[in-house]
Amino acid sequence: xxxxxxxxxxxWNNQKDLQACIESIRNTYQEYYQLIVVNNGSIDNTSKYxxxxxxxxxxxxxxxxxxxxxxxxxYAAGNNKALQHIQGEYTLWLNQDIVAQSDSIQxxxxxLDNHPEYSMVxxxxxxxNGSIQKxxxxxxTLSHIFNSILKGKWDDNFDYTQSQExxxxxxxxxxxxxxxxxxxxxxxxxSAYWLFFNDVDLSKNLQSRGHTTYYVSEAxxxxxxxxxxxxxxxxxxxxxxxxxxxxYYTKWYYTKWYxxxxxxxxxxxxxxxxxxxxxxxRK
Length: 283
What we know:
Elements: E1 5-11, H1 15-28, E2 33-40, H2 46-55, E3 62-69, H3 75-80, E4 90-95, E5 98-100, H4 104-114, E6 120-126, E7 136-137, H5 142-151, E8 164-165, E9 168-169, E10 173-177, H6 178-183, H7 198-208, E11 213-223, H8 234-252, H9 257-282
Parallel strand pairs: 1-2, 1-4, 2-3, 6-11
Antiparallel strand pairs: 4-10, 5-11, 6-10, 7-9, 8-11
Helix pairs in contact: 8-9
């Protein structure tokens, strides 16, 4: 049986959130769909949960594909393992700490159905208490990032109560036309993008090819923000961020050798400053 929608969830060491995510899909989306779960090197009880899920799955309601990575390949490379298995016209990429709310998935599908000019859509993300999470940004410039670091917050004038175009939604929950995702080869799985700047790079890649993204405020999903990254030490998390930051700017903006040298100097000065700020904030 063919499906209009494929859903990809990257799972890592959080069986409770993964189960809640899958159950929310089954409870809120009633059409036939394909669910692909990539078990990204989990060492907790995630593998046992997925084995039980496979054994008790009803293939008449949805197609289940489970991919097991021996090691944690990171966000981009882990998700890309699903590419060759995708069958649906659209693919919904979800973090395991997402909980779909009523009609959220259907609203995203309907928008892509009715608006062929858009290649990717993103829902309104909410914290579990119902407050709106800031999830859409402009593609970052160095000056924007530098100013946000100095201020300790990200300048954000985006009106999350209104549906509108957006440059860069968080990849915690995005729906994209599958043909386009396959055409661009999925996420950039360079090792520098192991954790951060995957969504920034994806949006930049789409924009560079003339594709546009739309934020659908009527589609609501809960996001237990940072459930996976909280497991990482802060300095380790900062290093992953820095590597992604370096990769993004040297890939898209500073491509000449002398530009990369100058950028590298600036980047590591910035890294040192952020570590100092983190240490001060912890006291």
